[in-house]
Structures are given as structure tokens and as C-alpha cells.
Amino acid sequence: MTMKRDQALEALAEHYTDGIVVPVFQSAFDWMQIRPHALNYLCTGAMGQASSHALGVALACPDEQVLVLDGDGSLLMNLGCLVTTAEQSPKNLWHFVSNNGIYEVNGEFPVPGKNVDFAGLAAAAGFKRTYSFSDIDTFRRELPEVLGGEGPVFVSMDVEIGKVYPRDYVTIHSADSRKTFRNALRERLGS
């Protein structure tokens, strides 16, 4: 059983209304529509780098909760980030991966290793808490526990394509998006 990605992100947005989020590609397009916010870090630009950017933000802002919304293909391009994140052990980082078995924004080609246990990889790398979800009701019910406590936390979400949102590449790669995030973060941190 799988859940629709937009349903999962909508549930997450209900519980995470005002924090830093580093979304990548299709998750970014969905998230921009589901939870538009100045603290959405839309600046990754290279597949596989959302997790590394989120780690940097989490380490630089230890009093702010940071979520990364990754894709399975993106994470496969940078599996070393799991080890690095676990080694740094930021208490304020939650890594969500949408596992749908395809490089969605790049033509919906299959990713290698369709049956990868991402939560198992994160646990083996040293993440303190890992979760796997394939049912939206269970995901909704357990989100308060997932978002509570200390990180680093890893969450694998078995998803399928839900509502299709516009793929706004201009916004996710724009200097204005970087400036908006930078200004919002400065305001949040009081600097």
C-alpha cells in the first residue's frame, strides 16, 4: 500500500506550520503550493544535494527545526549524506524521503534498487530514530511522535504521484527565492 505524496505533505504541513524546510524537485513543487512560506529553502539546484544543504542549515541554526523533503532518486545520488548527518548528529534535523521508485521530474525513469530500505540504511548509518510509512492514516497519527523529541530523524514515505502541481523551475532556481529565504532567516534569528 502507498499513499499520495501530496496527502503526506499536506499532513506534514498541518503539524509543521512555521519552520525551515529544504525541499527538492517534485517535493519542492508540491510544498510551494501546500505550504508557501519564506523559510522554504528553494535553493538546492543539484540533484542529491538537499540533504547536504539541510545539514548545513541545521548545524548553522541549532535552535531551529529543519526538515528536508528529499526524493528517492536524489537520496541515491548522495547516500554518504546519511553517514555524515549521523556523525554530526544534529538534534534539529528531520529527513523525509518520498520513495516512489522513479526520477519523477526527469522523465519518470525508474531509480535503481526499487526495493531499497531507506529507513534501514539511515538506521545503519546511525540515525537515532527512523520510520517507514506507506499508509496515510498511520502517517497522520504518528506525525506528532515523529516531529517530537530529538533528531536526527529519518522518515521514508512510500508514495505515489498525487495531485500534480506546476513545475515552477524559475522560482526554485531564482535569486529572488534565495533572497527571500535569507531575509526570512535573518529576521527569525534576529540578525
Description of the structure:
The protein is an alpha/beta fold and 191 residues long. The protein has one domain (3-184): Rossmann fold, CATH 3.40.50.970. Helix content is 45%, strand content 19%. The chain has 9 helices and 8 strands. The strands form 2 sheets. Strands 1, 2, 3, 4, 7 and 8 form a 6-stranded parallel beta sheet that branches. A two-stranded antiparallel ribbon has the order 5-6. Helix 1 runs parallel beside helix 7 (136-147) and helix 3 (50-60) runs parallel beside helix 5 (80-88). The radius of gyration is 15 Å and the shape is globular. The mean pLDDT is 86.
List the helices and strands and how they pair.
Layout: E1 3-4, H1 5-15, E2 20-23, H2 25-34, H3 50-60, E3 66-71, H4 72-76, H5 80-88, E4 93-99, E5 102-103, E6 109-110, H6 118-125, E7 129-133, H7 136-147, E8 153-160, H8 169-172, H9 175-189
Parallel strand pairs: 1-8, 2-3, 3-4, 4-8, 7-8
Antiparallel strand pairs: 5-6
